[in-house]
Design brief:
Layout lengths: L1 E3 L31 E3 L12 E3 L1 H10 L2 E8 L2 E6 L5 H10 L7
Antiparallel strand pairs: 1-5, 2-3, 4-5
């Protein structure tokens, strides 16, 4: 898949853990933490620009959406492929949202 998005400044990628304690939120201020900036009004006079993730945020969103092999091939352009193995988390989410679906 080719993924293109407007991004917020920042090239760093913070090595996040799988889980943090509720009282460890200060880690979100670390350079390279995956973030998205909310755009209240407009950027480039485009009313459809609502969010701008940083580089780490793009990678994190793609991983969390079930993509692997993520590579940035140009500024704000990424390529990736769907992971053939659906995570237990994704299956649990699907079963919650669609309880009558055919189970895989």
């Amino acid at each position: 898949m080719v993924f293109q998005t407007m991004t917020a400044p920042g090239e760093d990628v913070f090595p996040t853990q799988a889980n943090y304690d509720l009282h460890q939120r200060e880690v979100m201020d670390e350079p390279g933490w995956p973030k998205m900036a909310f755009i209240e009004h407009r950027v480039a006079n485009d009313p459809t620009n609502w969010w701008a993730p940083n580089h780490a945020g793009v990678q994190a969103m793609l991983r969390a959406s079930g993509f692997t092999g993520i590579q940035r091939i140009a500024h704000e352009v990424y390529v990736c492929e769907a992971d053939k193995n659906i995570s237990d988390f994704a299956i649990e989410e699907l079963n919650t949202l669609f309880p009558n679906r055919t189970k895989n």
